[in-house]
Amino acid sequence: MYNPKSKIATEFIDDTEIQETLAYAAENKANFPLIDQILEKAATLKGLNHREAAVLLECEDPAYLEKIYALAREIKEKNYGNRIVMFAPLYLSNYCVNECRYCPYHHHNKHIARKQLTQEEIVREVVALQDMGHKRLALETGEDPVNCPIDYVLESIKTIYGIKHKNGAIRRVNVNIAATTVENYRKLKEAGIGTYILFQETYHKESYEHLHPTGPKSNYAYHTEAHDRAMQGGIDDVGLGVLFGLELYRYEFAGLLMHAEHLEAVFGVGPHTISVPRVCPADDIDPGEFDNGISDDTFAKIVACIRIAVPYTGMIISTRESQKVRERVLHLGVSQISGGSRTSVGGYVEEEKPEDNSAQFDVSDHRTLDEVVRWLMEMDYVPSFCTACYREGRTGDRFMSLCKAGQIQNCCLPNALMTLKEYLEDYASPETRAVGERLITANIPDVTNPKARQVLVERLEKIAQGERDFRF
Ligand code: SF4
Ligand code: SF4
What we know:
Layout: H1 9-12, H2 15-27, H3 32-43, H4 50-58, H5 62-80, E1 83-93, H6 119-132, E2 136-141, H7 150-162, E3 172-176, H8 182-190, E4 196-197, H9 205-211, H10 220-224, H11 226-232, E5 238-241, H12 249-267, E6 273-275, H13 296-309, E7 314-317, H14 323-332, E8 336-338, H15 369-378, E9 382-384, H16 388-391, H17 398-404, H18 408-426, H19 430-443, H20 450-464
Parallel strand pairs: 1-2, 1-8, 1-9, 2-3, 4-5, 5-6, 6-7, 7-8
Helix pairs in contact: 2-4, 2-12, 3-5, 4-12, 4-13, 5-13, 6-7, 13-14, 15-19, 18-19, 18-20
């Protein structure tokens, strides 16, 4: 029985409710008066429930599709302006006891090198990331209580926050590790993590069990209820995601939104981020084996419909996607992207030997961070290295509060411009710096509050003189 407030996975992700939602969406996909009503509601930035959003996703009428894309762009612009938050993944360990059929780290894959970074190696990786200009990391590990216990992860976080190299600093460490206990989540919170991210992979229980035949991750309920435990452990910011291509995308889309509604219903705050990875090639993995792959057009439609349904949730896209696809979905709702990523353990310091094969997936976007930053700026986006809210203790629904208080232009934008200025001073190539300086000058007038604008100008000057780490 569907109940968003239930703590039981199969009740808040109720299969019957999803099937009925899909049937409702199919029946109403050309019900234009209803679609108009849904679009009107969404335009007020109140978000949509999973049934309403599913109707939009099902709609195929070209004129209405244009309206959906236009609204997604409008919401993106209103809530996020032209800022794009930058981050990089850091792979600590690829030991794993699970047998996920879509991931090369699965336990029985004998032809990849298993590695775990020592604390000294972590320092070297993080120094390399700092030298690129990164301030925000997403830690990634496989699940292995013996080779990669929680204490190792905690020690690694401490190491990372403690590294001070030139003007570099990692100011926010997000963590993407396996589902764990409330007690361990509490420890992660105490270690100062930003967002805890866990992908569901698929919400379809039967497929989930087929795709995860053995290991702790094979327990659908334990995995699906993990975000609840994280929030019980005091982590306010949690990230959701599915791996598109494993199951029917319509099913995953409804499940994802139901999961967001569940968090909102129980904890009063929805997910901080939603990630939208697609299955892609890797050692031992052929995406062709999964017959639910989605086209670039469908992918763009999913991103637009998520943007409309959960207007205050950040959306993340990785270097799994090509430059072309990334460019398309940035306009429709994605607010965070990775740049210059390495998806192998130790990959930032050393190019991996081909025989090691320790990457979790093949990267499609191979550009350096400098190139990604310049590319964004040439499209008039402001790459942001801002971590202010986390460091000011503004967690949970603070982005929504900032939006509602109309403070995006006077808080997020100046923070983005100041962190971009730091990047330009410390790490950018001359060409990128020139583009960036012009962009900053052009964006200053958009800070509407005269006092904030004046403070911003003063701080930009101080950054040019060598001071660092200002924030609103
Ligand atoms: S997806 Fe995660 S849990 Fe599954 S095999 Fe890969 S690293 Fe292990
Ligand atoms: S001020 Fe807060 S909400 Fe705005 S960009 Fe920075 S971290 Fe995000």
